């Protein structure tokens, strides 16, 4: 218990550390972004005079400098970079989504409205950053940035729910907040008296217009006519956003540059000097420093000085503006990432809202401090900031004057009104790891106002929490009580949205250790669910991750012939092992001696059922299938649990269709194999994916193979790069094509869709059906989901461990099923790509092209590997290409002939031998490559290619530090490439007729009558063979079979390694006859009754 306590304390400390680090990252990066932006705008004012450091000039004299047009142009480029980078990011994101996902095209009116709003928003940003902020001192400019919420404030007031009991109070506060925001229109213009500052109202209105969508509320009955149509407009613009943002960001960038030219023209400069002087501005040049004599006048009027006429010329640091712009862009993007991360991991209140709210006060205090240092000593930042650059310092020197005469206290009203308008960010209800599109109304941020844009852009979460008092209603439709009368429940209830997890595991011939691992995973999940239920029921804790649980195990071929009677059956040794193992697994999970109650035994039409109650009060229901009564194999077990849970348990409930639909949407089937090992957190991560995307039909986790031996080592690296590269790529640019049945979560509503569950029950009638339907059932189910428009995703953090084949033959037999089924399902998807692209928003034509290229690569793979081996032998041994070609062709040709003529055991033996030979050749290749690199150097093309190839794996592994140990097996993967990409393909294609499972095969128990018949046939075969030993000398022997046979047009037949027929076909016919006889006896007994 002590170790557990320290673990709990460590977890809490890590969570606290995460809160603090994300808070500091968000606040710090936002302050840096705001500070660097104000530094940029401070250099845009024409004829601005800056006190110059005299450290290297004359310590007893004072100097000033005036910013030249060339210097201002460099900072105009910096301002343009700050604005353009987020817009380019939006453009790239929109193009990517439009290319790889289905997008909706806007109508002409919708595009015109979006175009107009974004144009006005850009003009407002340009007025603020190019005209207003350069005319204000840096502190006043930072204060003004908190007064950009007037349009959201107005819409917030109009969109309030009038039925709310606190509507009047909220409306009064809304009016006060709007009034406070409106004071910014007149405060600085009246105090400074500059005509240009009267553009502040225009900038505030136009900029705040850009965030209108987030403040029109959701559609409901109490909305006014105008608000209702604004809400509909908002929804239409949201659907077409990525299509319109393929154009609008480029237009906004162009418009901003036009505004830059206009700002130069307004200030009396040549507008086109922005382009004409760019080369000179970003080159070596000098600036002029003037010596001045400082005069101290009245304290209220500040300091004054006169020019002495002495000037100096000093070199500029022309790249300073670019460095500052780079810092601003990096800090803003980092702030966006940290803020998004805070929202995704549900620490929004402290690390997002509170942090961004503090940006203004922290930045203003920091600016006052920096300006005070620079004002007191012009050389305070010597060596850090160029002497001719600094912020526009406030024109006061005493704190009392700043607070009184400068009206700084008004800024507190702006700050509080902003906090009220973005008050919804204090009440987040989004799910964990929510999609960015759900967290923010617009794809990215605004580079000029990073903190305000994130707060105003954060969407409102309207979903309410479901407490235990609401979940009580779920008892009537819970997993464990579907037989109760619920005819009076007709309306959708909050409890219908509770997650319901049905564990559906398929078992067959698992070992005891595999069963223990599987049962421990189930019992851990039971423990987790029980703790959540108790915390919610007795402690009143609202748990957003609460779920209900039931475990169903479908045991294939669970019966065998009885030891007492050939006409009866009994459970086999694997079922007995499961019954004996469950107490052991429970004891290991709960760290004490646990003994469950004996299972309830229920006879069923398909065999039988065993029901256990776990310590957490959840049930394990083991369905024992008798293959003489119901179809066996994994796909039919899946069909069975789909129809049992979704068809019988859910659809037969006497509730409304609407409630059934909501329940089905939140019902999840956790498909497992009988040897899987996982933790509850892995399931929680998959549920998070389901919650954030209602169109997600299936989600899979990261599968880790476990075992020992060379084949296990190979599979560890193969699984690693398969998940790191292929599955992650499919997840990002389209959809994952296969969610493996060993550990995947399926949405009940998706499985119940047309042409998914119904089509999945089709029996195989054609040759390709046996390959596509029965050999790769998991991939086929995902193909059906994709063709119906559902998405399949991958969660790299959801870890599960499965036992993999440890022997060479088992591995080849497993892949003999996987390779053809993969090709068949991808061919099926590509054949109907037009319809799939049309109905599935996540599959685009480019994604189909990507899969087509992969398919072509798979088809050409064996030939490519063959030629690679020819080249390798040529380079290592020095033999000619023709000799290497023939030398490689001989074993491959022999193996193809063996695969076409011999039994699978002999095929695997040959494959094993050739694999060992090729592995030794590949080792020589590795040595040859190393020697070649030493001889040619690291800059040779072959060296660069080799380093790039292996470097890709190392970089990918570094991005997955928990799995970096998989790199240890890269050599085993490399030396077995010829076997796995050449011999395995040949073996798979030559054994398409073999539809057996290939792994975990055991000899079936036989009746005494069958054993007696086998013995009799064996004796007859032996006698026949003895007689043929004599007859064959005279050419009179009976027909025999050979390991290798061939003939020409029936004229003759040549047999090698001959052996007598084993009469297996006769034995099979005898088994059929016995089965028919047994059925006739049962029918006769029923007829007699």
From TrEMBL:
InterPro entries: Chitin_synth, Chs-1/2_IV_N, Nucleotide-diphossugar_trans
A GO MF term: chitin synthase activity
Top-level lineage group: Eukaryota
GO term, biological process aspect, one: chitin biosynthetic process
Catalytic activity of the protein: [(1->4)-N-acetyl-beta-D-glucosaminyl](n) + UDP-N-acetyl-alpha-D-glucosamine = [(1->4)-N-acetyl-beta-D-glucosaminyl](n+1) + UDP + H(+)
Keyword Metal-binding: no
Keyword set, alphabetical order: Cell membrane, Coiled coil, Glycoprotein, Glycosyltransferase, Membrane, Transferase, Transmembrane, Transmembrane helix
Cellular compartment(s): Cell membrane
Enzyme's top EC category: transferase
Keyword Coiled coil included in the entry's annotation: yes
Record-annotated Chitin synthase chs-1/2 N-terminal putative transporter domain positions: 4-270
Transmembrane regions: 16-40, 75-99, 111-132, 138-159, 171-190, 196-212, 247-266, 316-338, 350-370, 408-427, 848-870, 882-902, 909-933, 939-959, 966-989
Protein EC: 2.4.1.16
Topology within the bilayer: Multi-pass membrane protein
Family recorded in the similarity comment: Belongs to the chitin synthase family. Class IV subfamily.
Name this protein carries in UniProt: chitin synthase
Organism: Bombyx mori (Silk moth)
């Amino acid at each position: 218990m002590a170790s557990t306590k320290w673990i709990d304390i460590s977890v809490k400390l890590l969570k606290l550390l995460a809160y603090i680090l994300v808070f500091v990252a968000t606040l710090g990066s936002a302050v840096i972004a705001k500070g660097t932006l104000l530094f940029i705008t401070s250099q845009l004012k024409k004829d601005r005079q800056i006190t110059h450091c005299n450290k290297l000039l004359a310590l007893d004299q004072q100097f000033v400098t005036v910013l030249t047009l060339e210097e201002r142009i460099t900072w105009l480029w910096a301002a343009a970079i700050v604005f353009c980078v987020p817009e380019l990011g939006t453009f790239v994101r929109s193009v990517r989504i439009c290319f790889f996902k289905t997008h909706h095209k806007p109508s002409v009116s919708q595009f015109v409205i979006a175009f107009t709003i974004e144009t006005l928003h850009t003009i407002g940003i340009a007025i603020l950053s190019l005209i207003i902020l350069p005319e204000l001192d840096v502190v006043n400019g930072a204060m003004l940035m908190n007064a950009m919420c007037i349009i959201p404030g107005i819409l917030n007031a109009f969109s309030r729910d009038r039925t709310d009991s606190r509507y009047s109070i909220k409306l009064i506060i809304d009016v006060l907040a709007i009034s406070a925001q409106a004071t910014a229109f007149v405060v600085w213009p009246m105090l400074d008296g500059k005509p240009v500052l009267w553009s502040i109202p225009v900038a505030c209105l136009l900029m705040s217009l850009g965030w209108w969508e987030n403040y029109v509320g959701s559609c409901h009955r109490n909305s006014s006519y105008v608000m209702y149509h604004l809400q509909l407009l908002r929804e239409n613009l949201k659907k077409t956003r990525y299509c319109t943002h393929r154009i609008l960001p480029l237009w906004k960038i162009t418009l901003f540059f036009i505004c830059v030219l206009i700002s130069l023209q307004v200030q009396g400069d040549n507008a086109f000097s922005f382009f004409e002087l760019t080369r000179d501005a970003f080159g070596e040049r000098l600036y002029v420093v003037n010596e001045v004599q400082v005069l101290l006048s009245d304290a209220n009027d500040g300091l004054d000085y006169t020019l002495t006429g002495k000037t100096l010329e000093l070199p500029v640091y022309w790249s300073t503006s670019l460095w500052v712009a780079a810092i601003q862009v990096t800090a803003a993007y980092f702030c966006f990432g940290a803020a998004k991360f805070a929202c995704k991991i549900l620490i929004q209140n402290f690390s997002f809202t509170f942090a961004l709210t503090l940006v203004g006060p922290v930045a203003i205090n920091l600016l006052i401090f920096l300006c005070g240092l620079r004002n007191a000593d012009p050389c305070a930042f010597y060596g850090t900031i160029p002497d001719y650059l600094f912020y526009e310092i406030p024109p006061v020197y005493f704190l009392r004057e700043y607070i009184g005469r400068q009206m700084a206290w008004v800024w507190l009203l702006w700050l509080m009104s902003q906090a009220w308008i973005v008050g919804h960010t204090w009440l987040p209800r989004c799910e964990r790891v929510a999609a960015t599109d759900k967290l923010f109304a617009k794809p990215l941020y605004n580079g000029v106002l990073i903190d305000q844009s994130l707060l105003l852009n954060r969407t409102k979460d309207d979903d309410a929490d479901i407490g235990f008092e609401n979940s009580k209603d779920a008892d009537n439709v819970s997993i464990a009580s579907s037989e109760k009368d619920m005819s009076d429940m007709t309306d959708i209830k909050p409890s219908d949205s509770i997650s319901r997890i049905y564990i559906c595991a398929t078992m067959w011939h698992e070992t005891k250790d595999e069963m223990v691992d599987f049962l421990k995973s189930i019992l851990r999940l039971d423990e987790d669910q029980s703790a959540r239920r108790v915390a919610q029921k007795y402690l009143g804790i609202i748990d957003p991750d609460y779920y209900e649980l039931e475990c169903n195990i479908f045991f294939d071929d669970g019966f065998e012939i009885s030891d007492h009677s050939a006409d009866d059956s009994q459970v086999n040794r694997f079922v007995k092992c499961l019954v004996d193992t469950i107490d052991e697994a429970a004891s290991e999970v709960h760290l004490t001696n646990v003994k469950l109650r004996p299972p309830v035994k229920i006879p069923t039409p398909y065999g039988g059922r065993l029901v256990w109650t776990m310590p957490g009060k959840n049930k394990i229901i083991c369905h024992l299938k008798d293959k003489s009564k119901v179809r066996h194999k994994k796909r039919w077990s899946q069909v069975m649990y789909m129809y049992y849970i979704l068809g019988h348990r859910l659809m037969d409930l006497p509730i409304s269709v609407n409630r059934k639909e909501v329940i089905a949407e939140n019902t999840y089937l956790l498909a497992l194999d009988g040897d899987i090992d996982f933790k509850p957190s892995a399931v929680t991560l998959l549920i998070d994916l389901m919650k954030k995307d209602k169109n997600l039909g299936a989600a899979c986790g990261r599968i880790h193979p476990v075992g020992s031996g060379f084949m296990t080592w190979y599979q560890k690296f193969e699984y690693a790069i398969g998940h790191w590269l292929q599955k992650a790529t499919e997840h990002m640019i389209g959809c994952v094509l296969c969610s493996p049945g060993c550990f995947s979560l399926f949405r009940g509503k998706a499985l119940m869709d047309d042409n998914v569950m119904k089509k999945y029950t089709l029996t195989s009638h054609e040759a390709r059906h046996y390959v596509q339907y029965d050999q790769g059932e998991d991939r086929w189910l995902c193909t059906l989901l994709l063709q119906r428009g559902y998405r399949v995703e991958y969660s790299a953090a959801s870890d599960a461990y499965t036992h993999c084949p440890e022997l060479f033959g088992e591995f080849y037999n497993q892949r003999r099923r996987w390779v053809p089924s993969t090709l068949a399902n991808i061919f099926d998807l590509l054949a109907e790509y037009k319809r799939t692209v049309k109905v599935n928003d996540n599959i685009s034509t480019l994604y189909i092209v990507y899969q087509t290229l992969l398919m072509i690569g798979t088809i050409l793979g064996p030939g490519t590997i063959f030629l690679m081996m020819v080249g390798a032998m040529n380079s290592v041994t020095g033999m000619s290409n023709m000799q290497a070609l023939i030398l490689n062709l001989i074993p491959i040709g022999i193996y193809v002939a063996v695969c076409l003529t011999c039994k699978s055991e002999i095929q695997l033996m040959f494959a094993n031998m050739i694999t060992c030979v090729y592995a030794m050749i590949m080792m020589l290749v590795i040595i040859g490559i190393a020697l070649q690199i030493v001889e040619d150097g690291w800059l040779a093309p072959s060296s660069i290619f080799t380093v790039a190839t292996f470097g890709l794996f190392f970089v990918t592994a570094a991005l997955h530090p928990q799995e970096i140990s998989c790199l240890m097996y890269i050599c085993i993967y490399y030396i077995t490439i010829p076997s796995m990409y050449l011999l395995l393909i040949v073996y798979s294609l030559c054994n398409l007729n073999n539809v057996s499972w290939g792994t975990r095969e055991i000899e079936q128990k036989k009746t005494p009558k069958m054993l007696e018949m086998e013995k009799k046939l064996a004796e007859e075969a032996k006698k026949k063979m003895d007689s043929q030993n004599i007859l064959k000398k005279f050419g009179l022997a009976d027909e025999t079979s050979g390991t290798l046979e061939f003939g020409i047009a029936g004229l003759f037949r040549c047999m090698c390694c001959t052996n007598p027929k084993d009469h297996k076909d006769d034995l099979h016919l005898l088994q059929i006859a016995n089965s028919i006889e047994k059925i006739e006896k049962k029918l006769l007994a029923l007829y007699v009754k």
